[in-house]
Amino acid sequence: MSGKRNDYLSWDEYFMGVAMLSGMRSKDPNTQVGCCIVSQDNKILSMGYNGFPIGCSDDEFPWAREGEDPLETKYVYSTHSELNAILNYSGGSLAGAKLYVTLFPCNECAKAIIQSGIREVIYDCDKYADTAGVQASKRMMDAAGVRYHQYHRTNRNIEISL
Ligand SMILES: O=c1ccn([C@H]2C[C@H](O)[C@@H](COP(=O)(O)O)O2)c(=O)[nH]1
Ligand SMILES: [Zn+2]
User: Domain CMP/dCMP-type deaminase spans what residues (predicted)?
Assistant: First the structure.
């Protein structure tokens, strides 16, 4: 055998794959979100997934989407994957970095992305595109010059036996 193999992962497949794998750690029964932050020279800087803050038990805090009492829904407690990935980074500045995420960032995550200096967002699903939150997110990222584009699915299947 001579020469390199050709079916290796592209950078985009690799980083979105890592984001997807990270999302598999989420305990959210409805939407699992994973995120992978990458430097301009393609080094992984940080990862995250959506979940409750440290000390807030996955078994005691609620995972419900709806309820008469907002305090009994997940929305007031869950930390989003993008924010977790940004906060997980302890290496200094994220200026100029790229962020791969399995769901388009909400407006709160967009604020953190912009303020941390991340310059590019590559997302997979945009299922909440019609919501005010995602529309606000796009408006802020447009204004701040943060580029975003959808990941081009290659339909490659990866099987990992653990
Ligand atoms: O920017 C975002 C937006 C949402 N998430 C998380 C927060 C929740 O855990 C789920 C969304 O749950 P639904 O049941 O689909 O409303 O996604 C995130 O991590 N980042
Ligand atoms: Zn968010």
Answer: 10-147
